[in-house]
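Q: I'm writing a short explainer about GS catalytic domain-containing protein for a general audience and would like to include a description of its predicted shape. Could you first generate the structure from this sequence?
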Amino acid sequence: MSFERIKTIPINQTAILLVDVQNSEIDNYHKENYPWYYQQITEICLPNMKQIIELGRSLKMEIIYTTIESLTSDGRDRSLDHKLSNIFIPKNSYLGKVIDEVKPNEDDIWLKKTSSGVFNSTNIDYILRNLEKNYLIIMGMLTDQCVDMAIRDGADKGYQVICIKDACTTHTLERHENALNAFKGYCTILNTKELIKKIQESNKNLIEKSNEIKPMSLTTLVTTDLIGITRGRSVLTSKLDEYMTTGCGWVPADSALTPQDIIDESNSWGSQGDLRLLPDKNARITIPNGPNLKNQPFDLIHCDIVETNGNNWDCCPRNLLKKEIKYYKDKFDIDINVSFEHEFTLINKNDSNSYPAFSFQSQRQQNQFSSWLMSSLEYANIQPENFLSEYGKNQYEITCKPSDPLTAADRAVSIREIIRDLAQQMDLNVSFSPLTSANSISNGVHLHISMKDSNGNYLFYDKQRPYNLSILGEQWSSGILNHLRSLCAITAPTPVSYLRLKPNNWSSAYTSIGYRNRKTPIRICPTIDFSNKSIDQQYNLEYRPMDGTSSPHLSLLSILIAGRLGIEDKSQLKFITEKDPHELSEDQRLQNNIYPLPDNLNEALKYLNDDQQLLQHFPKILIQTYLSMKYKELSLTNQFDDDTLCKHYSKIY
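A: Of course. Here's the predicted structure. Afterward I'll give you a sentence or two in plain language.
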């Protein structure tokens, strides 16, 4: 079939088909073993696909996706060829999802297949005939396998097939060119520019009618500041590539904002200075739709703050966290695993009912929300584990799998923002504030940490030592306790935080470490003898005096620095308690270096200001900004009684 055979491309009779444009094709295996293929996909095919899809959507053309994915978790439904070839993408796997850059809209057709041929293992022919489509534009991977079969089978079924040669690829250039030459008799082969020109020439009248204003998707470049509030600027998603290398503008004084949205006037920058929010291409979170179909897709990218010359900015917690992670790796050969657990209050605006703590009824009260939340987190590859009803009235908790520290901190931010977004869509009130009223059960953030070396040895566990806590684990924990009263100013950073850090609150009130003890700030967590994971893999420590008014990146950075100082100083623990530290006598506490945590934020800030061993590891300007901004926050809230304080922060966080 030659170009002359298809003289026009009538858009009302044409569908666009993307073949196997899925995450499995850009995983680390392909990146390392097929670098040319990976580069072709990421640098040539995906940008061309985006152009074609954008034009197609603007003309209301049908966009159809097909990906390799089993209908079952064990792959028993796969074709014989896929079984013999060991091609297996499990049901609901991340690898089976369409690559984010060209992801489907909610109403696009997405067909899962378990063979090479989309016409063989899906009902695409039936669908195309129902849609009255006679022309089929095909692009995807691999040119000489699944794309080849779609083209030949489509032609045999009577469709006018068009292959976009610079939106298809395979493992080598030679294979790609051989495939194009082999199936050119079954289709018209065009490049992206030729296709767009042909569509525009063929449909001038329809294109003119489509030139009306429509809502466009936005992507927000974000940073989470020193007070744990995520801020940023939105750009057109269609023009995102323009911002990936240079970012967007930012203002230094934004880091001096209090939670009350008042800039601390004593900050070092005033109205001067310029920065850039530089997107991290590996830290984009997209969710195509939610319960409110009128909402635009959720789309944000975590950014580093850099100076206009590209250098890292001293007050960017995310940059500093990356630096500390590298320090652990370079000096100690330590890889860190981290997960954040978030408690929050979720209330139906028109429903005053509450159900028993931890109950199935309480879970079901928010079953729509929990379903949307878990599916959204799963889609965004945040790897959720549990959604649970908590002890407090209308209180819930979300947990996710551990990851490296930077990913974990980004996930913590993403989880908060996804929960807020879903709550807004479903007309719910949500708050991560430590207390939403003076007599309510408190919300916390629990940080779980484990460490291993490059040989895969887990470093906190030692079967021969008390409570199985290794020497390194003891040193690290002791470092945390040595600086805990200072750390509270960062991990429990608002006046309302200290209504939570009291005895008998199941949070923490003293500088202590406990074995399976939820009333100590560091808890040695339980392990399960019948797990498929070994005990050393399960073994982890939990940091508890943290809440949802803190910055995940700054908090984790501070904790890692304090723990690292304990390792470097070879610090030792005096006591691991199985009891509530409040039940110990004052003499017992003093003998074992167990001291009360700060009673209020002002006291915590004084501890932080005096802790020069800890502060010397932070940029001076960051600490100056943080302390000054927090004292400004205190001046704005010191007249509030406890209930007013709780209500005030519950609206902010």
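A: For your explainer, you could say: The first helix runs from residue 28 to 33.
Q: Perfect, that's easy to follow.
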